Amino acid sequence: MGAKDGGIDRRDFLNGAAVAIGASLCPFHEAFAQEAGPDASALDPLLAEGITQNDARYYPPALGGMRGSHPGSFENAHRARDGRGWPPDAVEDTGESYDLVVVGGGISGLSAAYFFRKQNPNARVLILDNHDDFGGHAKRNEFHAGNRLLLGYGGTQSIEAPGRYSDVAKGLLRDIGIDVRRFYKYYDQNFYHAHKLTPAIFFDRETFGRDRLLVGREGEIPLANLESFMDAKLIAAMPIAEAARADLVRLRDGAVDYMRGLSPEEKRARLTKTSYRDFLLQHVKVHPDVVKIFQKMPHDLYCVGIDAVSANTCRQEGFPGFKGMHVQERRGGGAQAEEEEPYIFHFPDGNASVARLLVRALLPDAVPGNSMEDVVTVKADYTRLDRPGNGARIRLNSTVISARHAGDPGTARAVDVTYVLSGKPYKVRGAACVMACYNCMVPYLCPEMPDTQKEALAYAVKEPLVYTNVQLRNWEAFQKLGTNAIYAPGSYFSDITLDFPVSLGRYQFPASPQEPCLIHMLRTPCSPGLTAKEQYRAGRWELYATPFATFEQNVHDQLGRMLKGGGFDPAKDIEAITVNRWPHGYAYEYNPLFEPLDRPASERPCVIGRRPFGRIAIANSDSDGRAYTNAAIDQGWRAVNEVAAILAAAR
């Protein structure tokens, strides 16, 4: 799970160092081809030790170090992308035939398999996934403090606003045993207030000249709502220029129309094509220190800063500066008419429990139990995922490198799917196939597709991010400082939070400051000044080239400096680190700053890209252009219905 007292995971350090050195000397794909070696899957720590999916010792949630897109999960995909494939005579035909082959074992792929089996109870379904665990971005991280289990989310965080889910998505949650109303009992919404904890902001010396932690007023959210957070005393304590302090007060209190002469509709259009950074500098004319404070606020939602997020988007998110603007909302847009739901629908391992419940619905013996409560602490049995007698099978560590029709796509009766497992390519056949993997990979896996569809699938550049979970000896430093969450606009990790106060089933949140706990640290690697897509590509390079040791060093340094006033000692208080690296993270969401404003929904690239092709359908939240769990479920449902129509027409 990472190491105590500054230790380095040796395997990942070596891999990362090779990448960092090689990437500076040769092109990206060549660097990773060299690093990967002939058997990329052997980089996975379980497989490297000869522990396969059918071994009782196989249990990936307990692994630490570098997780997310872990070593061994991406190298074969890069090899296929770069045209360095395997000769046809090297492919072993397993002789296996299925009614449906699903490529991708994330929530969308698992949902597709569930929907298909629900419609066809006797159907045989195979799910192939390149990672060593199911769930995709719904990643479960397990830690242990003595006999105590601590759970963290390594990706998909919560069931957000379930009241707005489609009937299909609501029905799936209900089918697998999730009653979201129970979270009102399990999530202690008064916990932070009871402990007098409030969010804070950390100014680092590299960006602001000195290290300083400033804690907001109790119960307020920092900076996202500047009006309620920024009192005069707090602003006066900020290590910024005096002119910047005055500008913050002006942003908070002023009701100025910074685009006088434009109609409300024209203002909306202008703000949509102006970044919030440019709005602050060119229209509000703030001191540059103000921009430094706001720069990373959108990172958790958009994986870029205010230089690549529109002023209109920031206005809608509650950023200051728009009191006197009188902007025309789009018809049907603006504030939601329905009541906002609290952000409480969270399992201790995030939506990994949703994935585990889907696996339970497909393979009850693999995830024993019968409730949303017991799924949190039960240990999954990975040896039961891929047994020949199963109606549904999940095969991990299996990177798909090709999905081709067995004949002409218009008349073929099957799809041949080739995947690599332990360095060897294998082939299975499906009457149909759902591609629930990253949509940007589909053009490489399905070269028969029309160029227009491949271009549409490749249009989306997934948003890179890092979710790091850190096990602490206790959270006394947070209590002494009076904070539960820290925004750090100039630091390596931009957001640091205590874990959500959720106690569910036999799992108990560490309610006492003396108890061991997890904290969550967010990093989104950005290159301000570039377009959003260019920043995502640059961030991906950075993540692949960054070894575990770099993340570990920054965790120790940043926590030591931020929490120093609470008596925190990183050498003693940090017990384990798990880095969930996602070079291909959030689904690409259309950024109005860079996208056409008048493009019909039918012409969105995700809509064009998800069209069925022969017996192949496309799922994943990428196909919706929204990085949310309900989007993944809805797209799995759509893809399965397209498959059903294809199979019915062929009868």
Please give the structural blueprint.
Elements lengths: L9 H14 L4 H9 L8 H4 L16 E4 L6 H7 L10 E7 L1 E4 L3 H13 L5 E4 L11 E6 L2 E6 L13 H9 L7 H4 L4 H4 L5 E4 L1 H4 L3 E4 L10 H4 L2 H6 L4 H12 L10 H9 L3 H9 L3 H7 L4 H4 L8 H6 L35 H11 L29 E4 L3 E7 L9 E7 L2 E7 L2 E3 L6 H4 L5 H9 L3 E10 L3 H6 L3 E3 L7 E4 L18 E7 L8 H14 L2 H15 L7 H4 E13 L18 H5 L6 E3 L10 H22 L1
Parallel strand pairs: 1-18, 2-12, 3-4, 3-13, 4-9, 7-15, 13-19
Antiparallel strand pairs: 5-6, 7-8, 10-11, 11-12, 14-17, 14-18, 15-16, 16-17
* Overall number of structural domains: 3
Cross-sheet strand order for the largest sheet: 1-18-14-17-16-15-7-8
| Spans of at least 5 consecutive residues with low confidence | 1-41, 221-225, 332-337
Highest CATH level, the class of the largest domain: Alpha Beta
* The CATH architecture of the largest domain: 3-Layer(bba) Sandwich
Note the quaternary state here.
single chain
The radius of gyration is 25 Å
Q: Tell me, briefly, the overall form.
A: globular
β-sheet strand percentage: 15-25%
CATH homologous superfamily annotation of the largest domain: FAD/NAD(P)-binding domain
Q: Considering DSSP H and I runs of 4 or more, what fraction of the residues is helical?
A: 25-40%
Secondary structure category: alpha/beta
N- and C-termini, Cα separation: 52 Å
